[in-house]
Structure formats: structure tokens, C-alpha cells
Design goal:
Helix content is 43%, strand content 18%. By secondary structure, it is α/β, with parallel strands linked by helices.
Length: 213
């Protein structure tokens, strides 16, 4: 829950994500958790809800990257993913209202259109809070979009999220192109995944060698 010392923060972001470190897997969703930690150091208050379907093994929070964990009912398969956002919104409603009551949420940031983006769309409308959604790639390139009623239903649900979001954040230009081709009135931006340059750095010697060739 939100520390009382943080209630004066200028920006309070609620993150909804199916990817986040847990006691079961400390690297899952580290690409989300690590930037959030940096934002907190810069004065942004961050509340995180990591979601798991009831068909997944029960996970507890990671001590380095704490988060509320919520399990929700989702029918299995592609139809389940399409309808899961509505069921997730029901599971989240009370907790999100409680967080918002303690410290007003300024923006909801969902990761992946389904189910978190669809749940964010519903909560955004109910609480009059803008939402954005980050698309990581699998959302738009998965083979489940290829054919069948389930694929069409999932695609329609995803498009409704893209068109309702204040902004759709894409991790690459290729993802952005795919999103823009799916939606009629979608506002997109590209924000690349970052890396810690103290741990990872490009080998400039190899780059120079290629130029000589």
C-alpha cells in the first residue's frame, strides 16, 4: 500500500502488468520493474498491481520490487484472453478504488492490451482517470490473430483498447506500424527498452571493423 510520506507526490502512476518479478521468478518483468524504480527516485509515486490468472501457480511479491498481486478468473484459451479484461476489472475494482482514495491516481499504465489494457479501459472510464498502454510485441505479432472467431474477438478487443487509450506506447517502430494498421484513430509513440550502461555496452571495436569492411 502507499506510504503516507508519498501522498504529496506530483505524479502518481498505477501500473497494471502481467509481467513482474516475484518470489517464483525474479527476472520476469524486470524491464518494467527497473524503470519504475528509477522513476520513484525522481519523485514519481508508483503503485504496482501484478496480475495472474487462477490457472497460474500462486506467486508472492519479490522483496526488491514489491507489488500487490491479484489473481483473477480467466477462462483458458484465446476466448479467455479476449474476455479476461472484463473479469480482471471486477477483481481490481475495489483495490484500485482504495489506492485512489488514499492518494489520487493521475494515470493508469497498462502493459499489454489484454487483459490489463482492457481492464484499464474500464477502470479509466469509471474513475475518470486517463490510461496509456505499452505494447511489447507479442500483442500484435502472435499467431492467434491469424484465423477463426477467437482470433477476430481478440483482435477487436485489442483495437478497442488502442483506440481508447490516451497513448499507445510501442517498444519499436515495427510494433508501432502494426498497431497503426489495426486501429483507425490511435495515438502512438515509440519508447525503446533501455539498458543499464554500467552492465551492458556496445562493442565499438566490432562496429569500426564492420565499417572498414
Amino acid at each position: 500500500m502507499i506510504p503516507r510520506t508519498d501522498v504529496t507526490a506530483k505524479l502518481h502512476v498505477l501500473t497494471l502488468t502481467p509481467f513482474y518479478p516475484s518470489d517464483h521468478n525474479e527476472t520476469n518483468g524486470c524491464f518494467i520493474a527497473e524503470p519504475l524504480k528509477e522513476l520513484q527516485l525522481r519523485g514519481v509515486l508508483s503503485s504496482v498491481i501484478a496480475v495472474d490468472s487462477i490457472f497460474q501457480s500462486k506467486r508472492r511479491e519479490n522483496q526488491t520490487f514489491p507489488a500487490d498481486r491479484v489473481r483473477y478468473l480467466r477462462p483458458p484459451g484465446n476466448f479467455g484472453l479476449s474476455s479476461g479484461g472484463r473479469l480482471l476489472a471486477v477483481s481490481l475494482r475495489r483495490k484500485v478504488r482504495e489506492i485512489h482514495r488514499q492518494c489520487p491516481i493521475h494515470v493508469i499504465h497498462a502493459h499489454a492490451a489484454l487483459p490489463c489494457g482492457f481492464a484499464a479501459k474500464i477502470l479509466s472510464r469509471e474513475l475518470d482517470i486517463p490510461f496509456v498502454v505499452t505494447i511489447h510485441g507479442l500483442d500484435v505479432f502472435h499467431s492467434c490473430y491469424e484465423s477463426g472467431a477467437a482470433a477476430r474477438w481478440r483482435k477487436q478487443a485489442s483495437i478497442s483498447v488502442y483506440e481508447s487509450a490516451r497513448k499507445v506506447i510501442c517498444i519499436s517502430d515495427k510494433v508501432r506500424l502494426a498497431v497503426n494498421e489495426m486501429g483507425r484513430s490511435v495515438v502512438t509513440a515509440v519508447v525503446y527498452n533501455g539498458s543499464d550502461t554500467k552492465l551492458f555496452a556496445a562493442d565499438l571495436r566490432k562496429s569500426r571493423q564492420k565499417k572498414r569492411l
